[in-house]
TrEMBL record:
Function comment: Involved in the recovery of exogenous heme iron. Extracts iron from heme while preserving the protoporphyrin ring intact.
Keyword Transit peptide: no
Region feature Disordered, mapped onto this chain: 299-318
Domain Dyp-type peroxidase C-terminal: 229-411
NCBIfam families linked to this entry: Dyp_perox_fam (TIGR01413), tat_substr_1 (TIGR01412)
Enzyme class, first EC level, given as a word: oxidoreductase
Species of provenance: Streptomyces nodosus
The protein's name in its UniProt record: Deferrochelatase
Length: 424
């Protein structure tokens, strides 16, 4: 829960892109039996639309917004936070190896490109998202440590994918941690997100089995008059100092360079995933002032306790009338700052979660923490080690699940994600 903010989504660009996005699933599904079409391409989508006699479902701008599947980087990393998310991990099935993994990634990539364009799945589409557009759907794929031994690709396993060290605050459930394959799904329509989840899960066939799955949410885009940094379930503005794509060193910190090692990870990134339960009953007993001292920022507007606005630089040397630091020495925002951790930085892109209540009424709620970096040894690990030693927030959270995944660069047109690894 480092003190960093989420970047704005890049502009979608041309009116032609929006016209393509407006082609709804309802219109496409009406011609599911059409033949001779280049499925998964713009021409294929146009053919579907031309053959349909149904009028397209009108879409608001929220439904028409479209993220691109093909590109230098995978989607779902620098895109703006979406209202709904699913994180899911799979293990390769017994007997499945490199050949089966390649076929699965090929299927998944084809389907992801279609769904992100607002099109129906190629086979047996459920119709769940029939009346929806793309709704900013993003689908991201990654590989866990065990994937490489299961596919005979141990020599291609990156050293950055070595298991994370143990932290004293960990209470990890192995059954909800790690995994051979990881999928991140985000969308601004809950049905669109579920449709993607269900479609990809069905397409695993006999190649993989579900290991764990988690559901999350954020504030809906457009709910506020202007874009604002998200709040978490503690009521705190969460993510004020996230790296921004406009930063001169953004790519260096977040993405593996084109000349990186191994070569198949060029333009990729490493995702650390943590299920962080918030001990809300204890947190909510604190006064607002005490909560602010734990975080180091004002609850109302996210401004540092040293003064200013949310984006004002924190004055770590400022003291109060009694001579003590205005921002406590163990405040979360102080400890997690990059300049307090040798410049370590990561791009946070989390979802909140609420999975009901325990028998005693305790909420099972918190943060699905997802952060991106070029190297977790220089990003997540040093920050978490420092938080582990004295973060005031540690008394009010519990890390219950963890995973580290290598997320390769984006797939070009005609390629599938991970092709350079699996066919290299």
């Amino acid at each position: 829960m480092a003190d960093q903010s989420t970047p704005e989504a890049p502009a979608e660009g041309t009116s032609s892109q929006l016209k393509k996005a407006v082609i709804s699933r309802r219109r496409l599904l009406g011609t599911a039996g059409a033949t001779g079409l280049a499925l998964g391409t713009v021409g294929g989508a146009a053919g579907y639309a031309a053959a349909s006699t149904e009028k397209p479902t009108p879409l608001a701008s929220l439904g028409a917004d479209r993220a691109m599947f093909h590109g230098k980087h995978q989607p779902g990393i620098t895109d703006a936070l979406q209202a709904r998310g699913h994180l899911v991990a799979f293990d390769l099935a017994a007997g499945a190896g490199r050949k089966e993994a390649a076929a699965l990634l090929r299927r998944w990539s084809t389907t992801a490109a279609r769904l992100m364009a607002g099109e129906a799945a190629t086979h047996d589409d459920t119709g769940v998202a029939r009346d929806a557009g793309p709704s900013s759907l993003t689908i991201t794929f990654g590989f866990g440590n065990g994937f490489f031994s299961r596919t005979g690709l141990e020599k291609q396993r990156p050293s950055a994918l070595d298991p994370l060290p143990d932290f004293s605050s960990d209470h990890l459930d192995p059954s909800r941690s790690n995994g051979d394959l990881w999928v991140q799904i985000g969308a601004n329509d809950a049905l669109v997100a579920f449709h993607a989840l269900r479609t990809l899960q069905k397409e695993t066939g006999g190649a993989a089995r579900l290991r764990w799955q988690m559901n999350g949410f954020n504030r809906s885009p457009g709910a506020t008059e202007r874009p604002m940094t998200a709040r978490n379930l503690m009521g705190q503005i969460d993510g004020t100092r996230n790296p921004q794509p406009a930063d001169t060193d953004f790519d260096q910190r977040i993405f593996v360079p084109a000349s990186g090692d191994p070569a198949w990870m060029a333009n990729g990134s490493y995702a650390v995933v943590r299920r962080i339960r918030m001990l809300l009953d204890d947190w909510e007993k604190l006064s607002a002032k005490a909560q602010e001292e734990v975080i180091g920022r004002r609850k109302a507007d996210g401004a540092p306790l040293s003064g200013g606005t949310e984006t004002t630089a924190m004055d770590l040397d400022k003291t109060g009338a009694d001579g003590s630091p205005v921002v406590p020495m163990n405040a979360h925002a102080r400890i997690s700052r990059p300049d307090q951790n040798g410049g370590a930085a990561m791009l946070r892109r989390p979802f909140s979660f609420h999975d009901g209540f325990d028998a005693d009424g305790t909420p099972d709620a918190g943060l699905l923490f997802v952060c991106w970096q070029a190297d977790p040894v220089r990003g997540f690990v040093p920050v978490q080690r420092k938080l582990d030693r004295g973060d005031a927030l540690s008394s009010y959270i519990r890390h219950e699940a963890s995973g580290l995944f290598a997320v390769p660069g984006g797939a070009a047109e005609g390629e599938y994600v991970g092709q350079r690894l699996l066919e290299g």
